[in-house]
């Protein structure tokens, strides 16, 4: 009898050791990448999505049990192995267009959804198309957190290391002064980066680097090569569901392989 109990306990331990890593190591997080919004669906370019389409997408996520997470939560899942809710998504915007404040922010706020804006620090308040300091501060304290998109939207991958480091540090310093808190995350402008970019981002104190490489991200990935999923004018609920389902299928295949 004792031998049977010992065998069962040993089997449970072996199985738990085998199953747990698959669940913790392979959680696939979709990071959606937006830029501009418009109220006129006939006036779009490859970086613009209509407000109505964006509203439909956010409403779909809300009504279907998806949790919009913060960059801090995403980082914790990467660095501390914290398990996020099963249906977690990260919503990001690049550049800092005024439409993010006027058209996207009200939808996110009404839905109590989180998002992250990667702001070009030198564009703050420069033109009528970019957000000013007051608008950024309002968004930042209401769930639409502001992080860095460099100082002048520099094409980092084409610059020597020293200039990359300066561009990242300058933006980080400027935004931290504006927001009154640490800025810890960076999105590479135009998705341009190389090994020196990663070194510079780390040296400047950035914890994560987001690319424009298509795909989902898990904690197995390089924290300075975070994949994102482009969202543009042709995206609707059908394409959103397809992109979300891709991650589920990918996770199932990886889990099956590891198990």
Automatic annotation (TrEMBL):
Record-linked SUPFAM superfamilies: Glycoside hydrolase/deacetylase (SSF88713)
Record keywords, A-Z: Signal
Record GO terms (molecular function): hydrolase activity, acting on carbon-nitrogen (but not peptide) bonds
Chief location bin: secreted
Signal peptide stretch: 1-22
Source superkingdom: Bacteria
One Pfam family cited in the UniProt record for this chain: Polysacc_deac_1
One GO term (biological process): carbohydrate metabolic process
GO cellular component, one term: extracellular region
Domain NodB homology, chain residue ranges per copy: 87-259
Record's subcellular location: Secreted
InterPro entries, per database record: Glyco_hydro/deAcase_b/a-brl (IPR011330), NODB_dom (IPR002509), Polysacch_Deacetylase (IPR051398)
Name under which the protein is recorded: Polysaccharide deacetylase family protein
